[in-house]
User: Fold this.
Amino acid sequence: MKKVRLKLNSGRDFFFDEHGDPPPVYDIVNWQKDPNGKIRQVKVGTYNSTTSYSKALNINTSLIQWASDNQQVPVSICSVSCLPGHRKASIRGEPNCCYECVPCSQGEISNLTDSTVCFSCSWNNWPSEGKDKCLPKPVEYLSYDETLGVTLASTSISSSLIPIAILGLLIHYKATPIVRANNYPISCLLLVCLALCFLCSLLFIGYPQCQKCLLRQVIFGIVFALCVSCILAKTVMVMIAFKATKPNSDLKRWASPHVWYLLIGLSTCIQFMICIFWLYKSPPFPEYNSKVKTGVLVLQCNEGSTTAFWLTLGYLSLLALISCFVAFMARQLPSTFNEAKFINFSMMAFLSVWFSFIPAHLSTSGKYTVAMEIFAILSSTWAMLGCMFVPKCYVILFRPSANSKKHLLGKK
Assistant:
């Protein structure tokens, strides 16, 4: 019986498939009302699975009686297909074939028609505008190719030339009283440090490589500590120089240049140890941050230990506060030799910049956080350079009559 195959009088083949079932053949009927109002079934077509696909369905549309004047085949579903970028959402109280097309949520896509779910892109990709495919996220960092990076880099390089020019001026006029009276060796060291402070901001611009992330905050902390330590040494030496002139003063042995260098080296060494501990315990490293900005991959340097970062800034602030305090104590000394007011102004400006940096650093994100730190570096360095050396340069260049021993001693 499984192998039976014969042709019926109607002309169609009859056989059994592998499941023992005959091939399906259906009559398509249309319910119609006769003139008496009774419902009768009228055959309007056939479906024969044994013929080719194009000839399987035959319908004589002229025999069909429609319920309305619209002579179009009604749609068998109550909702159209959902395009890619959308998902199907069931309508409460309606059959399953009735649904609405809901756009995919932010960060999700669907690339199939009539998809029931949307799925998220990977961390380094973002949906296209149509939310039908994932595209790579643009990478953002403070580069030399953009206006902000070029502006900050050119400002850093041009600013570093000013301390070098002032250093050349002091070397040329090193025999004059105003240069000698303001501790010439420390002034030269301070100018070199100020030039390095301007240049260290270049480490914050460009592609954040592993070596750059490791060194930029460390170099910034050590160079600034050396710079502020020089100012602290100048302040302390002004105090010692005037106090040691009193008879039987025990401060005379502290007026040696070795004490200056010991103070500078000790103050810088503490910052150096903090940075070494930082690199050993939790060193900075480059990372991709996908949470800072929507649709953008921010390439930044993770500082590793946030505590070590703020400890480095805190130590610089402590040195500046000590310098301010010592300079305030030295305000009553003779003003002709006294640099206390200039030191006080420079340290106050330094502290104001970095205290303002804290809320700005916490409120910005991405490349603008780096730009804010560069701006703080440049501003604080300019504050120290302007307060400490602009008055001296003015006297040397425009008031040479004041650059004399008689004038410094208060004699007309």
